[in-house]
TrEMBL record:
GO terms for biological process, alphabetical: aerobic electron transport chain
Subunit composition and interactions: Homodimer.
UniProt key word Cytoplasm: no
Name by which UniProt lists this protein: High-potential iron-sulfur protein
Species this chain originates from: Leptospira yanagawae serovar Saopaulo str. Sao Paulo = ATCC 700523
Amino acid sequence: MKQYNRKQFLLKSIVLSTTLSLVLGESVLLGKEKKKENPSFPLPEGTTPVAENDPTAQALGFHQNANDTDFTLFPDRKLPQSKNQICLHCAQFTKLNDGWGKCNILSAGVVSNQGWCSAWSKKS
């Protein structure tokens, strides 16, 4: 194994961290995540959104934003024909306003019209 002195080690460390920050962005080095977009539509009065950690929601792989779907658990969600599979186009969804609605399956609150779960079925 090649021996490095302190000066070489520091130089290589600086080069490595600079390269990583340029290639991957500061979020990886500083632990920052991309800011999630909040829906711009207000919640209907007296309602709360369905929590993604709700047991039923977790069992269905529910997310308020369909882009947050775990593609390892739901690989079909990656397919091009699945891009319109959002709550707004689901048979179980009843629209309340431009951003929110009720779901017949996830009845613990309201869901975003941009959400998704594995129980999605096309509106007829």
